[in-house]
Amino acid sequence: MLWIRADGDYSEVRLLDGRSELRDKSLAALTAVLPPDFVRCHRSCLVNLRHNRSLHSGSGSRYWLVMANGKELQVGRTYISGLRRELGID
Q1: Are 73 and 4 in contact (CB under 8 A)?
Q2: DSSP conformational letter for 33
Q3: Buried b / exposed e across 22-53, counting CB within 10 Å, b at 16+?
Q4: How far does Cα 73 stand from its chain's mean position?
């Protein structure tokens, strides 16, 4: 799994092969059962740090992760310090 995005009462799971699957669990419920490699990067997104390529910052306190497949995921300001700590760049 690359990342998991909230989709109403469901969660969309993006897989390594590019497919998506819909799960009937919330992000909070999934966080409780996933390994610690999965961390919040946004209020609506969990990311698998094993498949993170880089973290970037832009103007106006904007941050985003680039995943191994090239997809860019927005990082919320609330989550940036914890994410930097998990990545070992704090």
Answers
A1: no
A2: H
A3: eeeeebeebeeeeeeebbbbbeebbbbeebbe
A4: 7
What residue type is 10 in one-letter code? Y
Q: What is the dihedral of CA 28, 33, 34, 35, to 10 degrees?
A: 130
3-class secondary-structure state, position 76? coil
Cα 23 to Cα 55, 58, 65, 67, 82: the distances in Å are 27, 33, 23, 21, 26
pLDDT tens profile 9-65:
899 999 999 999 999 999 999 999 999 999 999 999 999 999 999 999 999 889 999
